[in-house]
Amino acid sequence: MKKFFLFSLTVFFSWLSIHFSAHAVSLPKIFGNHMVLQQNAEVTLWGWGDPKEEITVTASWNQEPVKIVASNLAQWQVKLKTPAAGGPFTVTVKGYNTLVMEDVLLGEVWLCSGQSNMQWTTSAGIDNGAPEIPKANFPSIRFFTVPHKTADNPQINLDGEWVVCSPATMPHFSAVGYFFGRQIHQNLKIPVGLINSSWGGTPAEVWVNALAIAKNETIAQAAAKLNEVEWGPVRPGKAYNAMIAPLIPYRLAGALWYQGEANVSDPGNYAQLLPALIQNWRQEWSNDFPFYFVQLAPYKYGRPHEGAMLREAQRRSLATPNTGMIVISDIGNKDDIHPRNKIDVGLRLANLALAKTYGKKDIIYSGPLYKSMKVEGNRVRVYFEHAEPGLVAKDSKDLTHFEIAGADQKFVKATARISGKTVLVQAPEVKNPVAVRFAWDNTAEPNLFNKAGLPASTFHTGDNFADSQ
User: Fold this and answer.
1) Ramachandran angles phi, psi of 318, nearest 5°
2) What range(s) does the Sialate O-acetylesterase domain occupy (predicted)?
3) Among 1, 350, 360, 456, which is most exposed with the fewest C-beta within 10 angstroms?
4) CB 48 within 8 A of CB 119
5) Do 183 and 365 touch, CB atoms closer than 8 A?
6) What are the extents of the domains in the chain?
7) CA-to-CA distance for 444 and 332, rounded, in angstroms?
8) C-alpha–C-alpha distance, residues 218 and 226, integer Å
9) Which of the listed CATH numbers 2.40.50, 2.60.40, 1.10.3470, 1.25.40 matches domain 36-104?
10) C-alpha distances in angstroms, 414 versus 125, 309, 424?
11) Whole-structure pTM over 0.85, yes or no?
12) Is 14 exposed, middle or buried (0-12, 13-18, 19+ CB in 10 A)?
């Protein structure tokens, strides 16, 4: 009888354990030890529990409990007010069980996404990367790497964990992301959280909610023409569903984007696609966060001018509010689609963010960007934004890579010279110019810079740049 009683008790407690563990409060993987939450914000925490389970979330920065009852779908969500940067803190989630997230910091959280140039790690080999590894002891910088996965529908969870930046972890994180984060951390003296969700060789379509693409007939038709490849997905939404959707609505300071190589075959479409991606992410997050991207470096793409046209599509995407772009024509490698100077890419992105997002007034963050043109007889005067503190031919030689055209849109090589903060362009065979283009070649490494040492962007003054040969 005693043995039977003990057996029954064991079965009961086993059932009890299984029952409550099955319905215990739980969190998605983006929440955990060492995470960074956005400072000075209203952040959202969410998870699962038994329907009608009362859940209490308490953050140690104010010790104010926030209560919620799990819905009939076994879901819950709370909002917490965060103070200025600091930590470490704990966040406790208590339902039938208790979860305690430790070593939580408050700071600036940035999402890093795109293709292989964003995915590229220091351990994979970058210029001057080896000496940086032993110096990467920054416990207030934290990394979260999203693994490669696809899904047919938006997912609610993903794998991964937050890790502290150290010489052991830094080599395996996005190099561009790390050098961006380090610059932000060292300038602002606050914690930085970096989430890397990138996949080499993927077109932008896979990073957009498929429903958003379906609403745009032009983008949808272009997406339908994409051919399957062996190294990753090409269908709309496949990476978004598994690698972006589970992060929403984790509060971000902004997003960094380094992508476009997989879309060079259709640059006209990209001029609509990139703004659509930005709008889609902002709508999904309900947050018009800054979106900063990298213009493609020079490279020997297959068809003439397709790289230049993609760069122009990126430049025109700056019409989308609260965006920014860095130009890297001077630090690329026209023989390698993966230029190894990732340090300067990260630093330029950081300077862009420090100036535009964090209000640092003393940083010149962009090279010259085409603003407008004015025909003056047989020549054209080109005006630029970011021409401060003046324009310069970097090698002190004649300006290169300018072309000019008349009404027939037949572009010819032009001579160009700096005139104050403008450039005068002309060619003897074009008597009545109507258009100018610059760096209109896949491998162009032009020498027009501002005096801060930043290169000018590719540009085309005409409307139909994607048809320009």
Assistant:
1) -65, -10
2) 108-352
3) 1
4) no
5) no
6) 36-104, 107-356, 369-467
7) 10
8) 13
9) 2.60.40
10) 39, 19, 10
11) yes
12) exposed
User: 3-state DSSP helix/strand/coil percent for the chain, to nearest 5?
Assistant: 30, 30, 45
pLDDT digits (tens, 9 = 90+) for 253-305: 999 999 999 999 999 999 999 999 999 999 999 999 999 999 999 999 999 99
What integer pLDDT is reported at residue 425 of this predicted model?
Answer: 98
Go through 206-216 and write b for each residue having 16 or more CB atoms within 10 A of its CB, e for each that does not. bbbbbebbeeb
Residue partners of 3: CB distance under 8 A and separation at least 6? none
Contacts (Cβ under 8 Å, ≥6 apart) of 397: 447
- CB 346 within 8 Å of CB 175: yes
Q: Which of 337, 468, 347, 322 is nearest to 404 (CA)?
A: 468
| Cα gap 50→364, rounded to integer Å | 53
Identify the architecture of domain 107-356 in CATH. 3-Layer(aba) Sandwich (3.40)
Give the separation between CA 325 and CA 90, rounded to whole angstroms: 37
Q: Which two tokens stand for residue 374?
A: 């004015």
Mean pLDDT of 351-370: 97
Per DSSP, the residues of 151-207 read: -SS--S-----EEEESTTTGGGSBHHHHHHHHHHHHHH-S-EEEEEEE-TT--GGGG
> Which tokens is 161 given?
């964990």
Residue 23: helix, strand or coil by DSSP? coil
